[in-house]
Specification:
Blueprint: E1 18-24, E2 31-42, E3 47-51, E4 56-62, H1 73-76, E5 81-87, E6 93-97, E7 103-110, E8 114-123, E9 127-129, E10 132-144, E11 150-153, H2 155-163, H3 169-188
Parallel strand pairs: 1-10
Antiparallel strand pairs: 1-2, 2-3, 3-6, 4-5, 6-7, 7-8, 8-10, 9-10, 10-11
Amino acid sequence: MTATVRATNGQHWAPGTQILWRYRENAGDRVHICRPVTVVQDTDDLLAAWLAPDTPCVRPALADGTPVHREPLATRYTKPRTVVRDRWYGMGVLKLARPGEPWSVWLWWERGWRFQNWYVNLEEPRTRWAGGIDSEDHFLDIDVYPDRSWRWRDEDEFAQAQHDGLMAPAQARRVGEAGRAAVEVINAWGAPFSDGWEHWRPEPHWPVPELPADWDRTAARLTP
């Protein structure tokens, strides 16, 4: 995997650069989600990255191998966990993130490039390092549809995470505020929803990124 360092002097990753889009575990420091992606655009205002179909990734699982989403909610966040290697399914996802914003926006397509919806993933503002970006997922999400309607997602997981001590009350309040701020952008049909990204397509010559052996290495963070 090659990467261009985005240093504090304003350098950016060039289109086609492969980086890691990672999430730390909640209430911990270990990386438990790692997805190699290809940079589409990287400016002072926006990072856009493509998660291609069949990309090798790392995701959390219960220690007994049970996928997290199949575990009942009451014990989903309290049972011992590990990480497993997997491959990204479906059509792939375009991820859009603005510096300092406490969410990223993902675009989903169905087969044949039929646009499905945007997905607002509430998360810690991302930090950059030489090999990619790191964040922490905040459980609560928003689906946004082409007719400009929207709905909350995973409110039950957000509540359970607080109950299980993965999110302090002050942090939960900030996440709620971030969600309401995202809804204001949706209702105003601001960027990136109004920017036409649903018509974007990946470059056909881009290879599927590899997952490096040191995907969980400690990152020397460069900028927020």
